[in-house]
Write a structure and sequence with these properties.
Shape: globular
Largest sheet: 9 strands, mixed
Radius of gyration: 17 Å
Strand content: 15-25%
Number of helices: 10
Length: about 280
């Protein structure tokens, strides 16, 4: 008898985003419509999207997902590999979920075949513990389900974010996707600098952004600590850039940038956000 598919229930509906499907659909539609994104076709191979509450970072995230919706590669049959940082300290160094994930718009199906193939690489493990109380992936999913309702996904949580771990994960994703003949796009989930004055956050962020635009993943990974920039998902971003570069990516582009001060009015202690595409 076929075993029952695991299901990861929503853990942050009602806090990071609204629970009501109708209200959420209206909110996401409005954010996507107002996102200032070049509306011609694009060829992004990987993206970065923030993961704060939709109230704070939703407009920045909308720019990422509007860009994805216009992507000539993001057609039916694409698997989205969503990589988020581990904020809880629970689970494995690199944890791959084997569950389908629930959203207010319905479940997102796990590409189990690809997830299992990625886990064949030593140091990457099937693990649900890391995902139970982690918000960095879940907050992306209403946007993804809205723009690509039939797509499958892989859900990966990174505790270790050093260069060698990023190289391992990128190789596992690229080689597994090639072996299984998957059309794959990576979404790296990350906020930028945390809880500093707006001008300080901007200075630190744009100091490291230069490595993103030039597609220099190792330099970026190392520069985050050097600049003392508290980018929580620098490992997922590094991995996404490496994946894009392996598959012909030539440049990174900052689509949209902002911070929590736009919502709170507090510009002395902000969390900054960026929407980024690696072409």
């Amino acid at each position: 008898m076929k075993s029952r598919q695991l299901l990861r229930e929503m853990g942050f509906a009602g806090t990071f985003y609204v629970t009501s499907a109708a209200v959420l659909r209206k909110s996401i539609s409005e954010m996507l419509n107002s996102a200032n994104v070049f509306e011609g076709p694009n060829d992004g191979l990987a993206y970065v999207s923030p993961h704060a509450g939709h109230k704070y970072s939703g407009k920045i995230a909308a720019a990422t997902y509007k860009s994805i919706s216009l992507n000539k590669h993001a057609e039916k049959g694409t698997t989205f590999v969503i990589i988020g940082p581990n904020h809880t300290g629970l689970g494995s160094a690199v944890s791959v979920s084997m569950a389908n994930w629930r959203t207010p718009f319905g479940d997102i199906t796990n590409d189990i075949e690809l997830s299992e193939e990625i886990c064949r690489y030593s140091g990457i493990e099937p693990d649900e513990i890391a995902h139970v109380d982690e918000h960095s992936i879940e907050v992306q999913l209403p946007f993804l389900k809205y723009i690509a309702p039939d797509s499958k996904a892989c859900f990966i949580c990174m505790m270790d974010q050093d260069i060698e771990t990023c190289k391992l994960l990128e190789r596992a994703i690229s080689e597994s996707a090639k072996k299984l003949d998957r059309k794959t796009i990576i979404i790296a989930s990350s906020d930028m600098d945390h809880y500093e004055p707006e001008k300080v956050a901007m200075r630190k962020d744009f100091e490291v952004f230069r490595y993103l635009t030039k597609m220099e993943p190792e330099e970026f990974n190392l520069s985050v600590e050097k600049a003392q920039d508290s980018i929580c998902g620098y490992g997922p971003i590094t991995t996404a850039m490496m994946f894009s570069k392996r598959n012909g990516g030539k440049k990174g582009e900052i689509i949209c940038y902002g911070n929590s001060g736009a919502e709170t009015g507090d510009h002395k202690s902000v969390v900054s956000y960026a929407s980024i595409v690696f072409h």
